[in-house]
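TODO from last week: model UDP-glucose 4-epimerase.
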Amino acid sequence: MKQTILVTGGTGYIGSHTTVELQQAGYHVVSVDNFSNSNAAVLDGIEKITGIRPDFYEADCNDMPAMEHIFASHPDIVGVIHFAASKAVGESVQKPLKYYRNNILSLLNLLELMARFGTRGIVFSSSCTVYGQPDVLPVTEDAPIQEAISPYGNTKQINEEIIRDAIHAGAGYKAILLRYFNPIGAHPSAHIGELPIGVPQNLIPYLTQTAAGIRAELSVFGDDYNTPDGSCIRDYIYVVDLAKAHVAAIRRMLCAETNSDALEVFNIGTGAGVSVLELINTFEKVTGVSVPHRIVGRREGDIEQVWADPRKANEVLGWKAEETLSNTLLSAWRWQQHLSDR
């Protein structure tokens, strides 16, 4: 019998790709989303890839009665993967209260319902932003948590602390915190990908929209950082590889034979740092399409450079990032072309 996994933010960028990987790994997915940064067509894309349409609920995770109804309707939910959150660093600086309300209340509701309904575990979508600007690179899971430099990053830190405190208090479920780096790309089928509403807040969709002529030019926030070319450095991970990490985490958490701690933390990245300007140059090289861009001032909340030491995830989860940056960027461009043809 298939194990049932609740995926919040299930039609979002990472949530939709993880739903695909869960279904292909033999899990039954119950998906919830309020379409704040996605739409119902994503469900069609998932079904085209896997042949299975997830059980879907249009609901806000901050709506406790709605979430209670979902848990009561699916008493066989054994695990939760929690993606539902506002996630743009820049916007969080401008609208901090939106981020605190949305990102924290939704987790509190889930943890209360998990305890009430006997759910066995949660995989939490955390972020490398909890490390701030690390003193040592690449960054390991043992690196100190730095003071957050954006409300978005602070919500991830607070939520990790909430989960840690709940586990310490004997919550009765397990938790895995996946601190991932910068997901990019799209499913190779081009049926699902990153689909921002309005002006993109993330680099790659803005880059591909600029390449497609939808945006006039791409802004590069700063060229005076202490990096080889002056632009920020990040660890860009293929979204399908990232989705597979969530399946590996669920498998570990739910395996009765795995004598794992009640709370575990893993960095999910490639282990390679790439600058913004390097990323643009690689995109232009592999696609043959130019990306008009200009240097502007630094953006508040941005970290200078960070990339992962993923060895713990490699060794303990048995997971590893596999796709090349070139192929990942090609997948993002194919997705943009698919959107432009619709």
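Done. Residues 127 and 278 are 22 Å apart (CA to CA).
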